[in-house]
Amino acid sequence: MKFSWKNLLLWSLPIIVITFFIWQGIFAPITNDNNNVANSRMTYGRFLEYVDMGWVKKVDLYENGHTAIIEAIGPELGNRIQKIRVELPASAPELITKLRSHKIDLNAHPTKNNIALWNLIGNLFFPLILILSLALLFRRSNNTTGGPGQAMSFGKSKALFQIEAKTGIVFDDVAGIDEAKEEFEEIVTFLKKPEYFTAVGAKIPKGVLLIGPPGTGKTLLAKAIAGEANAPFFSISGSEFVEMFVGVGASRVRDLFKKAKENAPCIVFIDEIDAVGRQRGTGIGGGNDEREQTLNQLLTEMDGFEGNTGIIVIAATNRADILDSALLRPGRFDRQVNVDIPDFKGRLAILNVHAKNKKINPKVSLSIIARRTPGFSGADLANLLNEAAILTARQHKNEITLHEIDKAIDRIIAGMEGTALIDSKSKRLIAYHEIGHAVVGTLLKDHESVQKVTLIPRGQARGLTWFTPSEDQSLISRSQIKARIMGSLGGRVTEEIVFGDSEITTGAGNDLQQVTSMARQMVTRFGMSTIGPLSLENEDSNPFLGRGMANLNEYSDEIAIKIDKQIQEIVEECHNKTVDIIKNNRVIIDKLVDILIEQETIDGQDFRNIIEQYTRIPQKN
């Protein structure tokens, strides 16, 4: 709440009033008259003697007759009138008679009623404070969306509304997803110059759904639309619709579209729409009634009885497989735009965008970086250059070089760099293991090329062999899958041949998991076995049960036995071929292990040059 003199007065007034009443109730003098304060005291017996001697001139009674302030004059008092305090006994009926008989001026003062005062405070003042506090809370609930007033605005939309969204991002800042950019450039044109489309009878699309893996630029596209379009822009996350109270989400949807209709034509962006748009009526124990009500209201607002003329809804998700089919039909989300992992040209364009504010050495070629990073999303590439810049600053350099970029790539893929291993049997065993992977991968025509072999630990790995993945990973042949199986077995097979069966280690645990998974997919998904061209399993997972929990076998036990046998035969065949490669190139392996232990890292090209001194490397596909 902002500071204002009105608020200061509102909060200060109760404090001032409380302080006043407390002062009046507790600290007011008993005598209620500062002139009546006595400086000395006297016993009751001495007081009676003064009365008998005629020295007492006036008596004032306080506290229901328990205390008296007397005015007396006499030789003992220096013949001056002095005020003296006397504590009277609880019962002294003869005192009043005696004072009257000596014709002494007598006054009685009533006791101040403190109990009545505090009753007044409790019955009047505290309810007044409560009323003022409630008034302040209601005032804040009308002016803000946070704080205590938030409890009074559950049904209000939390959408961020901007007439002209100043995100600082335009279409020129978005690279690597040209097809998606064209779709949204058309929508922005529709908002700015709708007559181009209406002249031929075209209608503005009601919804555009962005689908793609995380980090590919879906939210960035929405920010670019907000920066390009001179139209009102509403931004909200799908999770902000759903609350624990039934009906709140639907109310927020109504409120959002009510505001949007008042500002049409406009754009409504819903990020992570899968939080509210999941399939209805599924899952164990029924669906979430609150979420389903919210989804029903969203469906009605997008294309219901009234419609939403002039409102373009843009949504983003990376879980399109779990969205309700009614949400995906034309009339609600007319267009579904796939934002995929960028290819080489896309990665190069993204690197050019993020390299604008980085001090990169002119000798560094961004195209080389783009070729070394297949499978990287836009967010990964931005993080790559940022990590390289951090490493450059840490080493007190002025420019980013290829060395820092290489380290950043390794760190992103495999984790932080660990401490180098000391010379020992364990280090030599790891060296043989990694050289086994690299040699088998290099000597197989259908395997990817070796990029680097290192003994420097990263993450959980004690050593690593890097292969340069191919650009096109969508179609993989049977020979390529078998080559990958043999490459994964290269480390374990080298341990068996060099150190013997009794010395093999657990280092190949992850390799064997990959081997088993690839062999099983060859049999059950790709039809690459003697069982036939049958797809016996699929990778679709039930989003309400979790990945892999609902994969029920749709084949007989006899087929299951055949599947296990075929997997075993494929792995055994690849294992035997790998053994032959390792045995036939033992001299090369020993030479490479000595070099690796000495240098700890061998570059891919240097690795191939050493092998070519002993044998011919097949031409890669």
Automatic annotation (TrEMBL):
In the central section; belongs to the AAA ATPase family. It is found in: Membrane; Plastid, Chloroplast thylakoid membrane. Acts as a processive, ATP-dependent zinc metallopeptidase. Zn(2+) binds at H433, H437, D511. GO terms for biological process: cell division; proteolysis; PSII associated light-harvesting complex II catabolic process. InterPro entries: AAA+_ATPase (IPR003593), AAA_lid_3 (IPR041569), ATPase_AAA_core (IPR003959), ATPase_AAA_CS (IPR003960), FtsH (IPR005936), P-loop_NTPase (IPR027417), Pept_M41_FtsH_extracell (IPR011546), Peptidase_M41 (IPR000642). The lineage of its organism: Eukaryota, Rhodophyta, Florideophyceae, Rhodymeniophycidae, Ceramiales. Its cofactor is Zn(2+). The chain crosses the membrane at residues 7-26, 115-138. Its EC number is 3.4.24.-. This is ATP-dependent zinc metalloprotease FtsH. HAMAP family: FtsH (MF_01458). Coiled coil: none annotated. One of its GO terms (molecular function) is ATP binding. It comes from Osmundaria fimbriata (Red alga). The active site is at E434. The gene is ftsH. Homohexamer.
